[in-house]
Amino acid sequence: QKAALRAITDRLIASGDFKFRRSAFSAEEPKVTLLAADGDIAVPFDIAVNSPAPLHNGALLTECGRLDARARALVLLTRRWARDRGICHAAKGHLSPYCWTLMAIYFLQVEGLLPPLRGFAA
Q: Which residues lie closer than 8 Å to 113 by C-beta, 6 or more apart?
């Protein structure tokens, strides 16, 4: 996984369209964060190889939005709030974005806005 990530990262950076932001090779599921620059706007994105976690996170967020549009909005707002305060970075000992997602979903379940997990689509 790490060798594939390094090769992909090197090729993307060499193209001149992307900039390196950070790597997390010591994490359980290694990933690299790059910036895609378009003029004055730089959009960060993660690259991972053979990692199911982003797919699970995306499916969970999609299902929350399907059940209640406010749920997806609250999850994204919660993650943004934590990131803006510098408390959303697992490598620094903070909770990961996925943990913030789960906490927001738990809150919505306790408030009765989302069903228990078994009520989610498979």
A: 68, 70, 71
Look over the chain and give the mean of its residue pLDDT values, rounded to a whole number.
85
Q: What does the DSSP 8-state code read for residue 116?
A: -
Residue given tokens 């059940």 in the structure block: 67
* 78: CB partners within 8 A, 6+ apart: 100, 101, 103, 104
Question: Could you report the per-residue pLDDT of 41-78, keeping only the tens digit for each?
Answer: 888 888 888 877 778 888 888 888 888 999 999 999 99
Which pLDDT score is estimated for 30?
A: 81
Burial class (CB in 10 A: 0-12, 13-18, 19+), 6: middle
Contact predicate 54/102, CB 8 Å: no
Confidence (pTM): 0.68
Rounded-to-integer distance, Cα 29 and Cα 12, Å: 20
Contact 79, 89 (CB under 8 A): no
